[in-house]
Amino acid sequence: MNKLARYIIIVAVIAVICFLAWYFRDILAYVLIAAVVSIIGKPLVHAIAKIRIKNKRIPQSLCAAISLLTIWAVFLAFFVLLVPAGINLANQLSNINAEQFIADMSSALDSFQVWLIANVPGISSDFSLGKVAADAFNKIFYNIEIVNVFGSLTNSIISFIWGAFVISFIAFFFLKEEDLFSQAVMMLFPKRYEKDASVALNSAITLLTRYFIGIFIEMFCLMTLVTLGLTIFAGLPFKIAIVLGLLSGILNVIPYIGSIASTLIGILIGVLVGVNSLGADFWSMATTMALVYVVAQTIDVAIFQPIIYSKSVRSHPLEIFIVLLVAGSIGGILGMLIAIPSYTVLRVFAKQFFNQFRLVQKLTERM
C-alpha cells in the first residue's frame, strides 16, 4: 500500500470516528467528564492506597469510592453555598424597576448626554439618553421572563441527577482500574500503531492533568479575589459578590473573551443591584467595580497564570484565538470551554503520527 492510499484510509477512519463522536455526543460527553473526574481523583486514590490498617492495604475499589465521594462532597458543599446566593440575586434582579433605576442615575446620564450633544455630530438637542437606557433595560430584563427560567427546574434537576449518576458510575471504574480509559482509547488504533498511540495518550493525559488542576486552582484564586474585592471595596453583599466571583472564575476559562465578558456582565449586575437596592452612586459603583475586576485580572495574568501554567504547553495567542473562534461557531460557549483541552490532545496525536508535515511541525514546535 502506497503512502497516498494509507493517508486516505487514515483520513477516512478519522472522519468516521468524528461522525460517531458527534452522533453519540451525549454519551461521549459523559465518558470524557468521567475521565476528567478520574484524572483529578487519581492523586487522592494513590494517597489513600498508601494507608495501612493493621499492615493491610485498603482495597482499590474502596480507595476509588472514597475519592469519588470526596470529590462529590466538595462539589455539593460548594453548590449548597452558591444556590441560595444565586436565587437571592435572581430575586433582586426580578424586582428591579426600570423607571426607578433610570431616575436614580439620571444625573449621571444627564451630564453624559450634554457631552454627547455637544461633541457627537448628528445628535439633536431633543435626544434623551435616559429614554434609550430605559428601552434597552426593558428589552434585556422584561422580554425575558425570569419565571420561565425556573419553570423547567424540575426537568433540569432530574437531568442533573441522571448525569451525575452516569458520570459517577463510569468515573468509579476509571479510578478503580487506572488503565481502563487508556485501554478503551487504544482499541481505536490498529496494532501496528499501538506504541505511538500509547506514547501520545500518556503525553496527552499528563498535559490535561496539569491543565485541569491548574484551571481549578486559577478559578478558585480569581473567584476569591473578585468576591473579596466586590465585598470590601464595592460594598456588595457577600451573597451577590460570590456569585459574580464564581461567574468570573468560570468565564475566565475562555481566554481573552471570558475575562471581558465576566467584567461587563459583573459590572452591569453589580450596578443594577447597587443603585436599586443599596442606593449607591452610579458612576462611583461602576468605577469601583471596574477597578476591582482590572486589579484581579492583572494579578491573575501576572502572578497566577505564570505560576500555575509554568510547565504547561503553550500555543501562539493568535493560534488559540482562531481555535476559540472555530469552536465558538461550532459549539457556542460549551465549544469554547472545551476548545483548549481538545486542541491540546489533537496537537499531541498530530505530533506523534503526522510530524512529517510542515504544518504539524509548526503547530507543535512549542511542545
Q: Can you tag this structure with a few keywords?
A:
single chain; 367 residues; mainly alpha; two-stranded antiparallel ribbon; 15 helices; 2 strands
Question: In brief, what are we looking at here?
Answer:
The protein is mainly alpha-helical. It has helices at residues 3-23, 25-49, 60-94, 98-104, 106-119, 129-141, 146-151, 153-176, 180-186, 194-232, 238-251, 257-277, 282-308, 317-353, 358-363, and strands at 52-53, 56-57.
Helix content: over 70%
* Nearest-integer average pLDDT: 75
N-end to C-end Cα span: 32 Å
Shape: globular
Radius of gyration from the CA trace? 25 Å
Give a short account of the largest sheet.
2 strands, antiparallel
Q: Tally of extended strands? A: 2
The main sheet orders its strands as 1-2
Structural class: mainly alpha
Percent strand:
under 5%
Number of helices: 15
Q: Which segments are poorly predicted (pLDDT under 50) over 5 or more consecutive residues? A: 143-151
Order of SSEs, N→C?
Answer: HHEEHHHHHHHHHHHHH
Describe, in plain words, how this protein is organized in 3D.
The protein is an all-alpha fold. The chain has 15 helices and two strands. The protein has a two-stranded antiparallel sheet. Helix 3 packs across helix 11, helix 4 (98-104) runs antiparallel to helix 6 (129-141) and helix 10 (194-232) packs antiparallel against helix 14. It is globular, with a radius of gyration of 25 Å. The model is unreliable at 143-151 (pLDDT under 50).
